[in-house]
Design brief:
Distance between the termini: 25 Å
Structural class: alpha+beta
Largest sheet: 2 strands, antiparallel
Shape: globular
Number of helices: 2
Strand order of the largest sheet: 1-4
Radius of gyration: 12 Å
Number of strands: 4
């Protein structure tokens, strides 16, 4: 059964830690992409900052399986 995130949240990315492995883009391609930055290094890009419930499982997987723990899901008060 797919998990959803209850309530409001925001997605935080630590660009300093990102090494462009692309796990996030594989788990949640509707939310993340990996592209080279202006210095030529692959880094995560956030494509969708407010994903619907149908995308939550991919977001949770991306955060869980990111090798460098770049992705944080921060719950917001309602």
């Amino acid at each position: 059964m797919a998990q959803t995130i209850e309530g409001k949240f925001r997605i935080e990315l630590d660009f300093d830690l990102c090494q462009g492995h692309g796990v996030c883009a594989g788990d949640a391609p509707e939310i993340f992409a990996v592209a080279e930055n202006r210095l030529g290094y692959a880094k995560v890009r956030l494509l969708n900052s407010d994903p619907g419930p149908e995308l939550h499982q991919g977001l949770l997987n991306a955060a869980k399986y990111c090798p460098n723990r770049v992705i944080r899901i921060v719950k917001l008060e309602d």
